[in-house]
Write a structure and sequence with these properties.
Blueprint: E1 9-14, H1 16-27, E2 32-37, E3 42-45, H2 55-62, E4 74-78, H3 82-94, H4 114-121, E5 124-130, E6 137-143
Parallel strand pairs: 1-2, 3-4, 4-5
Antiparallel strand pairs: 5-6
């Protein structure tokens, strides 16, 4: 597609690996590019957080279908809040409707292929738990469904 001569500008938000591929392809046609690559935006949950308000976490993760360069890509959760936060977040994420983004009532779409569909609708999400001392990190996995 980039070799077609029709594209005048390429804008991409995503991984550094894919960004490098696109930049290399765009260079052959001297196509202008804008890249937001390899973001690492954590969402912090402290022990005194209002865990019933996990809607903010869903919004932080799913802004622009999860493709915004500022979208949270990991949750750092204090051990004292981990169980409740994980359950609440999993329930909120599991309640999102995945489908054609042009249809009413759809929360998440479009998805590029079947492997992405499986990742988006799969049974698990990961939450990192910070131990009270702050020096130990463990993974907690919660079920979406």
């Amino acid at each position: 597609m980039l070799d077609s001569g029709v594209i005048r500008k390429l804008s991409f938000t995503g991984s550094t690996a894919v960004g490098k591929l696109l930049l290399a392809q765009a260079a052959g046609q001297v196509i202008r590019t804008s890249m937001e690559l390899g973001g690492n935006a954590p969402f912090l949950v402290l022990p005194d957080a209002d865990l019933a308000a996990a809607t903010a976490a869903v919004q932080a993760k799913m802004r622009n279908m999860g493709e915004a360069c500022t979208a949270a890509n990991r949750f750092l959760v204090h051990v004292d809040a981990a169980e409740e936060f994980t359950a609440t977040l999993a329930a909120r994420m599991g309640a999102l409707t995945v489908g054609d983004g042009r249809e009413d009532g759809v929360d998440v779409g479009p998805l590029i292929d079947a492997s992405i569909w499986m990742a988006a609708t799969g049974p698990k999400i990961s939450v990192e738990v910070i131990a009270l001392s702050g020096s130990t990190l463990a993974s907690t996995v919660g079920s979406r469904k």
